[in-house]
Write a structure and sequence with these properties.
17 helices, about 450 residues, about 10% strand, about 45% helix, globular
Length: about 450
């Protein structure tokens, strides 16, 4: 782009400028740049950096060149590790859209979610500051985070499409970039460590309790534990409020799991499937650290392993809020193995495998999955998406070429209302896989 701009400016003697449209000519120029950067020997992917990029109608950021008084907009891309590919078990990737809610066109939804994110800024700034107690400039940088994210929210109120289609996923990712720009990394690390220890101390009694039940009773109770663990999400304002009001733990979350039938309840079909035809290999995209992964997901993993199902846990490559992260889960799995010989043996025999998803988001875009995980999918016949970010905000309508489960507790009253439920309604959506179809040949 610089070469084109310089050439046009030079040959026109400064009378003509090269202008690039963000999503047309500009997109083509960026695509050409990325194509030229491809290197099969190096794993990487590109992510738009919203803080450094100027949005549509936001105003200009930098001088185009020294010989022109005009200004130009800016698009900055971050280069990150891991090559990302479309998820191979996804049906119709050509029409797939990760995001369920389009905040660009839905004004009421946009106002609601921008207000939610705006109200949480000061709390998150406080959490960031406390994560670096004793660091001299932590206060200043926490204010920088709050200021930069608030500025972006205000821009989106006036120009919802400033950074392309607006979604809950994009707001979450933008918030994480604001943390990183202010040099805050894994701000909930101490909270996660503390909750992991509490959950691990409870695990033996949880497993002992589950083993007193009949097989069918145990399968349903395991799902209740998955749902209860998913309630305890530090990224959900309703949950944070309850925790701040008093001692709100896993037993309290269990009580919030509604009696069956749940809002979406395919649990009986799930149990019947496990009873008659267990799976060969299950891939689980996991969500939160602490009670969620330890007391919920590992309870499910143990049941699948007992059915001779290999289990792959796909986990975030980088930390975000209180989501469990790859390096953290490697350590946690060993600790859980100390409690359960079933888990320990599976880790040793590689019947339980932990792999990076390639994501650094609370949501999941199935068009951008780590290529190493994609390469393992030829053996997968069950995909499990856990949590609101991966199974409700994104991918709720996604279909696969294998059986799938979407499981989450609705921790937003707005989401619950739009799905016909109430706050803390449970979703357990089990769907059969679709057959692969050959693309139609041109006439």
């Amino acid at each position: 782009m610089h070469t084109i701009s310089f050439a046009i400016n030079y040959w026109s003697k400064g009378e003509i400028q090269a202008l690039f449209l963000r999503h047309e000519g500009y997109l083509g120029a960026i695509g050409a740049f990325l194509k030229g950067c491809e290197d099969d020997e190096v794993d990487h992917n590109w992510v738009e950096h919203y803080l450094a990029s100027s949005g549509l109608d936001q105003g200009s950021r930098s001088r185009q060149n020294s010989t022109s008084e005009s200004l130009c907009d800016v698009l900055e891309l971050d280069k990150r590790g891991n090559r990302l590919l479309p998820f191979p078990l996804l049906d119709r990737p050509d029409i797939y859209t990760a995001d369920v809610h389009d905040l660009t066109t839905d004004a009421d939804a946009r106002d609601y979610w921008l207000d939610v994110f705006s109200r949480g800024i000061d709390k998150l700034a406080s959490v960031a500051r406390e994560s670096q107690l004793g660091v001299p400039d932590a206060q200043e940088r926490s204010e920088m985070f709050a200021r930069s994210f608030r500025e972006r929210v205000d821009i989106l109120r006036g120009t919802p499409n400033a950074f392309g289609a607006l979604s809950i996923r994009k707001l979450l990712d933008m918030r994480e970039q604001c943390f990183a720009e202010a040099e805050f990394y894994d701000v909930y690390a101490k909270h996660k460590q503390k909750e992991n220890e509490v959950a691990l101390s409870m695990l033996p009694s949880i497993f002992d309790h589950l083993d007193t039940l009949t097989w069918e009773e145990r399968q349903i109770d395991v799902l209740r534990h998955v749902l209860a663990g998913n309630i305890l999400d530090l990224g959900a304002s309703e949950v944070v409020k309850r925790r701040e009001e008093g001692n709100f733990g896993f037993s309290d979350a269990l009580k919030l799991v509604h009696d069956r039938p749940w809002l979406t309840d395919h649990a009986s079909q799930w149990v019947q499937k496990l009873k008659t035809q267990p799976y060969r290999c299950a891939l689980i995209f996991v969500d939160n650290s602490g009670f969620d992964i330890v007391l919920g997901i590992f309870a499910l993993v143990r049941e699948l392993l007992r059915l001779k199902t290999k289990v792959i846990l796909a986990v975030n490559s980088e930390p975000v809020i209180n989501d469990v992260q790859y390096g953290e889960l490697l350590v946690l799995a060993d600790r859980v193995g100390d409690v359960s010989s079933c888990i320990r043996d599976a880790l040793v025999e590689e019947r339980l495998v932990i792999v990076e998803s390639g994501s650094s988001s609370s949501c999941l875009d199935l068009m951008r999955v780590d290529r190493k995980l994609c390469a393992m999918c030829n053996q997968v016949d069950l995909v499990v998406l856990e949590g609101m970010g991966r199974a409700v905000h994104t991918n709720f309508h996604a279909q696969f070429h294998c059986d799938s489960v979407k499981v989450a507790v609705l921790k937003s009253s707005w989401i619950a209302q739009h799905l016909g439920g109430h706050l803390f309604s449970s979703v357990f959506k089990f769907e059969k896989g679709l057959p692969r179809t050959e693309p139609e040949s041109p006439e």
